[in-house]
């Protein structure tokens, strides 16, 4: 049966009367007598909802289903409650069935299904019904099993329904949690271990299990026929996982998987490199080494230290390009001055990084830090690079020097005085202010757009 994600009926707002208050409050408390009295008044539309902020368009049926009041659910249905009516939650509407399924109210799920509730209707965030059963859970109860079995036994539900924001399919979710019984249960009912989610080809079920370090689940999935892919291997975070997956891949797949690039724990990286299963200078399919990635996403200095200890190539050139942030031909030092700390930059320089290296646009690391779009130009980085003996007058392919780029970034910097400090630092180190770029402009002409700088330059160059 085709999944349903159609427009839903607008809310019917209830007037704020005593009978309606009694009606809605009874749906939460479970007070059958109060509910019957409210209904007997003849005033109540069972599909109406209060304008109370925390209800978000929920009807009495939604709340009774959430609170587990089976008899009230039955009463409301007998009085014409719309079983598939959705609320108006800002994160996406859901039905009483979604709510009951998530809360493990088996009897209510069964009651709703027997009365024709649509299992294909998508709910919050556009999520499929069974995704709600496991949503945000790290363990699975007996009630969850019963709800899943009820829905699948009903027929018409696509077991491969998915939403990436909820982990993928329900088999993806079960693999993240690592519940072996549920994995077998779902596979026995037709779930495919190798189902490919459209546009998310790398996010297989095994990929999810590896990412959450569920070794037993990975072992079971492989037994059930799941393919081990390089992208799944890349998510490994311990040597036990590496040893489990390794026999199913070629050495080329392992080397280009990017497992080092994805790793976040220095201890694991050390163990992996010591095992010689991978090489510290392996490049992933994007042409990125672990050192390039570590300098682009610097989470800790220890990771850099481990990579350098094992001989990471300081002169490797990246092939990625992200407009205005990452350039083709960037070396680790280019990345570090743009994204990392002065400590990381110092480590690279001490290890022998080339201060005069140029990326494809001809930028040196000094020019690269001058191009920084941060709120301030990070004086400490300039200081570290200048002390390393860099050519402060080097220009890029457009003949823009570090001073030219500093001037061009000055209009975006909230701290012009910080920019003045860097200007003085570079000039003191020998940077020339009369060099012209390919447009015939000196850095002083570019700086002239800043009133603060004009005032400073007038005193420096009367």
TrEMBL record:
Presence of the UniProt keyword Repeat in the record: yes
Top-level taxon of origin: Eukaryota
Coiled coil: none
UniProt ANK repeat ranges: 56-88, 92-124, 166-194, 328-360, 361-397
Claim: Repeat is one of the keywords in the record: yes
Sorted UniProt keywords: ANK repeat, Repeat
Name listed for the protein in its UniProt record: Ankyrin repeat-containing protein
Species of origin: Talaromyces proteolyticus
